[in-house]
Design brief:
Rossmann fold; 2 domains; alpha/beta; binds adenosine-5'-triphosphate
Length: 395
């Protein structure tokens, strides 16, 4: 593994020298220092070789941190912030700037070394990320996000032959295993706890395989878990590893957006925001889109609004939804209550229950959109195959 280049940025030469001293002889990183004086807030201004990570010390001025928080995520390097203790404003700003860790100044040697080690593991992982992260989240409870996440992942894995992992990120009430009538013994919390020791093979211990071959990293609902008990950097490490070894990782994310949820949303290639045709759904969806694009700075084109339980007779029409949310298009999933409820209750994915139902076909179109495949490809192929060969030849 190549050594990780770290740029240490501070306004204090004394603090910078102390920090540099702490990291001297660190085996996996190479530290260079930049002392900021008045002028540019961009910590990378005039830096010739872009570092792999930034170690930002901020106490007297928040200008550099603010600059990073205002920059698009793809433009800022992985970040560790060293700042004043118990200042919620600075911590919040650090979170917005995408900080992987926040250390109180002055940090102990082991604190800074541990933080750098975590970043180094992440650095090694990002060098070979191959899969895409698809996050499904609802705008209001009960919109159908879990049903869709489960069935998208199942279809990707079984019908599209894509190596897919479904992740239940509802750490408190997760129940995706019931959608497949599965009974996992371990899941995401246990995997996060062990993440530092995991590799491509050992991570499978925490994953449960369905008889179809689809794989689920479950959340076990009998372990009470609070978001603040889980380390963001460990979750980040786990996702990076999962993305190295799967073509698609589909996450069922609960609506409550906390630091963990923000981490998942920020790294998502596709965010499917599930809404229904009601004013309250639209109101909350609007807030959610604002949060994702403005607070988390995720590009808007990564969001697809999915209109679930779509009813063409509703007084709220597709145009109204598009106008309210300022988007060009939505993907509609029809309302088939009996079929969907039966599929969930029996733990049998909808594609196995009814291959040609309107909901199954709509979910197929959604998968095509995620994979960048045209919707017409499948129906045309089927029609072609159904035609008598003589007609096909005359076409
Ligand atoms: N396309 C659909 N047609 C009819 N009913 C549906 C459809 N999609 C979901 N449902 C119904 O909505 C219910 C809620 O779905 P689901 O649990 O997936 O929602 P959720 O957004 O994950 O909710 P939560 O906020 O509890 O996580 C399901 O039990 C099912 O009965
Ligand atoms: Mg759910």
């Amino acid at each position: 593994m190549s050594r990780m280049r770290i740029l240490l940025v501070s306004r204090s030469a004394t603090v910078a020298a102390e920090l540099e001293q702490l990291l001297r002889d660190h085996p996996v990183c190479k530290v260079s220092t930049k002392i900021v004086s008045n002028g540019h807030f961009d910590p990378l201004h005039d830096v010739s070789v872009k570092p792999d990570a930034l170690l930002l010390h901020c106490e007297s001025s928040l200008g550099e941190l603010q600059y990073l928080a205002d920059s698009p995520p793809q433009d800022r390097p992985p970040l560790i912030v060293i700042g004043p203790p118990t200042d919620p404003d600075v911590m919040r700003l650090a979170m917005r700037a995408g900080a992987a860790d926040y250390l109180t100044s002055p940090p102990q040697r082991h604190e800074i070394v541990d933080a750098i080690d975590r970043l180094a593991a992440r650095f090694a992982a990002t060098e070979s990320r191959s899969g895409e992260l698809v996050t499904v989240v609802n705008s209001r409870g009960g919109s159908g996000a879990s049903f869709l996440a489960a069935n998208i992942a199942y279809g990707l894995s079984t019908a599209d032959d894509v190596k897919t992992l479904l992740v239940d990120f509802d750490l408190q009430f997760g129940g995706l295993c019931r959608y497949f009538d599965m009974n996992p013994k371990q899941g995401i919390i246990e995997a996060v706890e062990a993440v530092e020791d995991l590799d491509e093979v050992s991570v499978e211990t925490y994953i449960t395989q369905h008889k179809s071959g689809m794989r689920l990293l479950a959340a076990l609902s009998d372990t009470l878990c609070l978001a603040n008990e889980i380390s963001v950097s460990r979750v980040d490490m786990l996702f990076r590893m999962l993305l190295q070894h799967n073509e698609m990782v589909v996450v069922d994310l609960p609506r409550r957006v906390d630091v963990l949820g923000a981490t998942v949303l920020e790294s998502s290639d596709h965010i499917l925001l599930v809404v229904q045709q009601s004013l309250s759904h639209l109101h909350d969806a609007k807030r959610m889109i604002r949060l994702i694009t403005q607070e988390l700075r995720v590009p808007a084109d990564r969001i697809t609004v999915v209109l679930n339980r779509y009813d063409k007779n509703s007084i709220i029409e597709i145009d109204d939804v598009q106008q309210a949310l300022k988007i060009d298009r939505t993907v509609e999933i029809p309302n088939q209550y009996d079929l969907v409820t039966e599929s969930i209750n029996n733990g049998k994915p909808i594609i196995d229950r009814s291959r040609n139902s309107a909901v199954t076909r709509a979910i197929g179109n959604l998968r095509n959109r995620i994979r960048g495949v045209s919707d017409n490809a499948t129906p045309q192929g089927l029609l072609q195959r159904a035609l008598p060969s003589i007609l096909r030849r005359s076409n």
